[in-house]
TrEMBL record:
InterPro entries recorded: ACP-like_sf (IPR036736), PKS_PP-bd (IPR020806), PP-bd_ACP (IPR009081)
Protein known as: Phosphopantetheine-binding protein
Keyword annotations from UniProtKB, A to Z: Phosphopantetheine, Phosphoprotein
PROSITE patterns for this protein: CARRIER (PS50075)
Domain Carrier residue range list: 15-90
Organism expressing this protein natively: Amycolatopsis halotolerans
Length: 91
């Protein structure tokens, strides 16, 4: 059973703003084994680290078709900021 994000994240839950944020949030939630990921949740607060970043980026490549360097997630750890990097064509 996934961990509740309420127990992990100090941020108030903010629903993903659009389909891309929803898809990335679902991938992050699955890899991090949490019930959901909000726009302002930090990847680190939810238990993320370098291996999880690699796994998330690999799943994004497979499901969304966008290849990313895991450092993008490590440097832009909130969902909304990370997705903005995807939109801008981050490597």
């Amino acid at each position: 059973m996934p961990e509740s994000r309420v127990a992990l994240s100090p941020a108030e839950y903010e629903h993903p703003a659009d389909e891309l944020e929803e898809r990335v949030a679902a991938i992050m939630a699955a890899v991090l084994d949490v019930d959901l990921v909000g726009r302002r949740d930090s990847f680190y607060d939810l238990g993320g680290g370098s291996l999880a970043a690699i796994r998330i980026c690999a799943r994004i490549a497979g499901k969304i078709g966008c290849r990313l360097d895991p450092t993008v997630l490590l440097e832009h750890d909130e969902l909304a900021d990370f997705v903005e990097q995807i939109r801008q064509g981050a490597p």
